[in-house]
Amino acid sequence: MLTFARRFAFFLATAAALAAADRVSVAAAANLVYALDALNAAFRATEPGTTVVVTTAASGNLVAQIRNGAPYDVFLSADLAYPRTLLTSGDAAAGTLTPFAVGRLVVWTMRPELDLGSVGVLMRNTAVHKVALAQPETAPYGRAAREALRKLEVWSEVQGKIVIGDSVSQAAQFVQSGNADCGFVALSLVVSPELTGKGRYLEVPLELYSPITEAAVLTTFGRENAAARRYLAFLVSPAAREIFTRFGYGIPPAGAVAPVAPPATSPAS
Amino acid sequence: MSDAASTFLGLSAPLWQSLGLTLRLAACTTIILGVIGLPLARWLNRTRCRLAPILETFVTLPVVLPPTVIGFYLLLAFSPQHAPGSWWRAVVGLPLAFSFTGLVIASVIYSLPFAVQPFQAALRSVPHDLLDAGAASGASPWRVFLRLHIPLAWRGLLAGLTLGFAHTLGEFGVVLMIGGSIPGVTKVASIALYDEVQRLDYAQAHGLAAVLLAVSFILLFLVTLLQRRAR
After folding, report:
1. A211 — contact with chain B (CB < 8 Å)?
2. What ipTM score was computed for the predicted complex, to two decimals?
3. What is the reported pTM?
4. Which of A72, A162, A261, B68 could make an S-S bridge to B173, C-beta 3.0–4.6 Å?
């Protein structure tokens, strides 16, 4: 009985300590899933005692959740449009829009016999029956893929071959399982520790699609969370940039980086 | 607006298409559930085979299994890296994932217990002496089944078919894993609804959700009536 009471007291003390510790709840676009492990480890190294909890899904899905009151402090979007939507609707804190990485689009295949000479040639290949991409309506990598295919003037030919994943991760799943012959995914996924060395990829030339500027924003829910503000600032630190580069991202040009608002402890007027 | 021409009752044409596809999928699935589920239910009721409990457990699994589990294993099974998928690809030339046939196979597995369990209960409810009398008057077992068993248990059997149909309408996780969201082929209503919510088009989402809610209610109400009368 006594041991139980003691254990319970210890449990209460631990729970109280955890509640008091800084906690950042991050909602992140699916393409960031691998880079985030390294990123959060680096962040925790600078801030021992801070807990980072991550949810990954398609950006559009996360926006829908946030607009309906999901308790995320920081939203890491695959493009600028979604955080802007949240800023307009008042679900994100003004002045916190932070572009932190530029996504790169690749075509990825597990089929060793496919000729990866160029995107156009690959798309016209009759051996390619199914091409996976993320939902162009809601996933930035899907939209970029559609844009590239239109620019290459193969969209109408490819349309009948397209299968759509809910997010870029799911498009990758279709390719990895071999159900789709090839697919448009984020470079960050195919160079990840889990997928590196699996299949082959061809980078889609940057001039074929508008830049996929990955950007973060503080949600209205996380406005008062000082640790969340530090997390946002950390995303554009040299340490974070090194990680993004290692994980297959470009770095946004200096002008694209909006200044991060000061911490909540000294609120901007 | 140019969109106005392609909307009916407030729902856009692609959403009606997804509803039509869902109904077609549920209809195909229900027919197959009847064809394989009925003999299966009868066999499970009568057999003394020691493996029957294992088979019955397998049939019942989708009741408790997350649909994504079924979807995940089907994604692997349909893949050309594994026997069923590579065989299909060799014969048909296209992957089984992302196809209507693939969805039908998945739906039959997913909805099987929802049909087979009512079938078993309905068949069990027919008094044994009636069937014995039929057999004693010289009818073959098959004839007894067709002429006595089915007519006497029809309410329960119809309830099973309706439940199988209704359950297929609600399929989401399985299709998400193997469907590929192809309009008219694999983009069923539940996936279309999910996409509308992601696009933040709540008006369209509401319309589609309301239709699914109404259809499901009517079907379940029918099942309830059938089962109350069968008792």
Report:
1. no
2. 0.78
3. 0.81
4. B68
